[in-house]
Amino acid sequence: MEIFSKSNIVAKSNFNRWLMPPISISIHLCIGSVYAWSMFNPALTKSLGVVTSSAGDWSLSDVVWIFSVAIVFLGLAAAFAGKWLEEVGPRLVGFVAACLWGGGFLIGSIGIFTHQLWLVYLGYGVFGGCGLGLGYVSPVSTLIRWFPDRRGMATGMAIMGFGGGAMIGAPLISFLLDIYYQAPTFLGSIQNITLQTIDGIRYANLNGMLTEVVVVGQNEIINTLKPIKEGVYVVGSGDTGAGMTFITLGISYFIIMALASFGYKVPAENWTPKGWSPEKNIKRNNSPITTKNIHIDESLKTPQFYMLWIVLCFNVTAGIGVLGVAKTMMTEIFSPALPNIVDGAFTATYVLMISVFNMIGRFFWASTSDYIGRKNTYHIFFILGILLYLSIPYTASQMSVNPNIVLLIYFYAATMIIFTMYGGGFATIPAYLADIFGTKYVGGIHGRLLTAWSTAGILGPLAITSLRSNSVNNALIELSSKVDPVKFKETFGDDLSNFSQLASTKTVTISKLMTILPEGTINPSATVYNSTMILMAVLLAIALFSNYLIKPVHEKHHMVD
After folding, report:
1. What pLDDT is attached to residue 289?
2. How many helices (H) and strands (E) does the chain have?
């Protein structure tokens, strides 16, 4: 264990501090792939059916919470690791993070292969989430100590990697899923197969045995992982490739993070860059900056800590709910109206661009905060964010009535700006904490503040899944009142009176209903996220007020020199 000792990683006086950013960024690039989680959503929700969801498959509400659990344990682990990091140093913390993050993928793969959802939650959510928390705080606190003269830029560099993780992770996941994908058994077109519907589930008679099948129509072909034919497929006869993708990523991330953790160095006590002194961190614009330090435990007694907690929590809540279902949201809003444009490749690129703008925003906004102040930077986030979130419901509503590519371009641009500010909020908060509480315990204080991220990891997905589910149910009920009962029975093999049961088993969906509804019926898929966007705007308004109230910490909380 001596190799992990904090005393063995103190840098010599001539050490080049610019060697630290690449190490920090490499670790954050690995754990930042959590932002590409929505790439797994289609595969996990079709784990058995493969080409479309079967009755026994997990729903989107089931799997999106895996991402939430990972974020919850990220915050909890960071709150613990912040103080532990001060004691043992970043090398040991980084290595443990590698074990947990890589091992979490391996445990999750077992859950996918055995179709045991709790194992995916335990592996990716709990163990992986703890690895996220440990891997997140170690680079940030290290770079703040190496760059006290450029706090915003330093944290921007470190956290830029976390935001950019999906830039590498999204195409990598797509590539691996494609390699490991195995198509299910195709029985033929629905006209040539005799089907039975029992308890809302479709069956075909194969060699004298009833076998569960799924039926794929024209509206669902654009959402499949690979090109397929319309018709009937046997449930459980293929593989989405998600399990092997988990194994490949787990091993790769462990190796990279473990090697990077051994490159950590920390500056000697009282080290400062040549020609710089703490007094040079003067008050910029409207940002409270101190040259004093506040102890990690004392920070919890200040109102500033809780105001910043609200600022971070609601900023993250607004973005994290959208991040978790980014690919699904783009598909549901725009695929029905623009199927030739918004296909699988387009949505994969969209997830990639989210990562790009998330990463750019982290470095841009954090560096900008060095000049305009942290407080003013967050004011921009919230005011502009409110306007953009409120514009999305209008865009979606217009898309369902009068679809055109201009609305797609606007939605694309608006969400990209939102994600720059989402990432910028993460990158700027450590520098904001250093301004208010000093640099001595900023790693530990930052770790405790990340419990706001844990809370947001629950609030964001809870809001978007519950409100979306409610909107989808209302839309299905409304559409059912317009369908011809005869066509309904011909299509789904059951009476319209059993509509609720058929919807709960995924036999009836909005896209399948639209194929038998009268021409001119408006597809409601585009508007199922409207209520969520309005709620996010309200949360940003609360965060704006909290940020406005932040003042310098009272001198009674300062540490004695």
Report:
1. 66
2. 20, 5
